[in-house]
Design goal:
The chain is of the alpha/beta class. The chain contains 13 helices and 14 strands. Pfam families: Cas_NE0113 (PF09623).
Length: about 375
């Protein structure tokens, strides 16, 4: 143990380091070294996740250690008096295919698709806890793996997350005995029998700016199983012009390229709003004469004279009420946000127009982008 003075660390919270690595596990300890010795405030991860292949798995054990043998991570923590994560917080994620079979390497087109989906799902899961902080390292693994993890962070990253790249001179980066600069003079011998003082090696951590697209993703992609292509398509949808297609025969609603499902009551309410917008009618207020009848007419045309119609007619026997109107509007907008994501849904939600106490409600879509078949 050295007398190196440790840096102060943040209060205990969930701090995640995610790296992709194969034959260069040194990037894990080098990144942690830079995060704790060059960053203010120091960022010591409480858990470490490494994405690799079957061929790369054995290299990661050099850092994490194996049963009865400490790895380079423990040496780093001892040297710099860092709180080493428990073994249960050290995770190796071996890329697997759609059938759950681990991949030896990432070489074929199918391998790349599997790697993209696996990495995307891992990043999605690690960012689900909104109170955590995550640093992603791009320095190890195949180039396609580093591309996918960087792109996945762009899709799912929160404001507090960082994308980094650790820089070390090649002659040290590929040396199997160099994992970080120790605090005291340590001589490392090269293959040609020359040596260098490892404590003098310069390690630089570069922050990589990235665009955060998380707020534009539908909730199903933030919480459920997803693929890389599905997530990219959802992000790409934000760039497409708004359009709505409703088919009364199939009772299907499409906002952009996404089918949006609603129950009979909310769908009827939204179609009523779409029809008004398509006719360039002004926004509405629950006090408008005949609004309840307009809603019932739409409900009947889509669903017939069923029990749902009878219940709605009984509720609206004296016309549209504020409570009924607000509930329908709120539920419609919630379902649009869940299906489309927060940013994309802003084109389609029922929005407020004007100021209180005379606020009215309607769509902001142009009539030309609405198709009612």
């Amino acid at each position: 143990m050295t007398d190196h003075k440790p840096r102060n660390h943040p209060l205990p919270e969930r701090r995640i380091l995610l790296a992709v690595a194969s034959h260069s596990p040194q990037i894990i300890t080098e990144t942690i070294y830079a995060l704790t010795q060059q960053t203010e405030p120091a960022f010591m991860p409480t858990e470490i996740h490494v994405i690799t292949t079957l061929l790369g798995q054995s290299y990661i054990h050099q850092v994490f250690g194996e049963e009865g043998k400490q790895g380079w991570l423990h040496r780093l923590c001892d040297d710099y008096s860092l709180p080493c994560p428990a073994q249960s917080k050290l995770h190796i994620h071996v890329i697997s295919d759609a059938d759950g079979q681990p991949l030896d390497d990432v070489r074929t087109r199918a391998d790349n698709t599997d790697a993209a989906d696996f990495i995307t799902q891992t990043v999605q899961q690690l960012t689900a806890d909104l109170d955590s902080k995550m640093v992603v390292s791009l320095s190890g693994g195949r180039r396609t793996m580093t591309f996918y993890v960087g792109y996945a962070l762009s899709l799912y990253g929160r404001p507090q997350d960082r994308l980094t790249h650790v820089l070390v001179e090649d002659e040290y980066f590929f040396n199997s005995d160099f994992f970080y600069p120790p605090p005291t003079e340590t001589w490392v011998v090269r293959e040609d029998n020359t040596g260098f003082d490892a404590s003098k090696v310069e390690v630089t951590l570069a922050d990589i700016p990235f665009v955060r697209l998380r707020e534009g993703l539908p909730s199903r992609l933030l919480s459920g199983q997803t693929s890389f292509s599905d997530t990219v398509d959802a992000a790409q949808a934000e760039l497409l012009p708004a359009k709505v297609v409703f088919n009364a025969l199939t009772v299907q609603l499409f906002c952009g390229e996404t089918q949006v499902s609603m129950n009979a009551v909310e769908l009827s309410f939204y179609v009523m709003m779409l029809r008004r917008c398509a006719l360039d009618l002004e926004p509405v207020r629950w006090t408008d004469t005949g609004l309840g009848d307009d809603f019932l007419d739409v409900y009947q045309s889509l669903n017939g004279l069923n029990g749902g119609y009878d219940r709605a007619k009984k509720t609206l026997i004296n016309g549209m009420t504020k409570e009924y109107f607000e509930q329908r509007k709120s539920r419609v907008n919630r379902q649009l946000r869940e299906a489309l994501g927060k940013r994309l849904s802003t084109h389609y939600i029922i929005d407020s127009h004007g100021k209180r106490p005379n606020t009215r409600f309607g769509l902001t879509l142009s009539a030309s982008v609405i198709t009612l078949a």
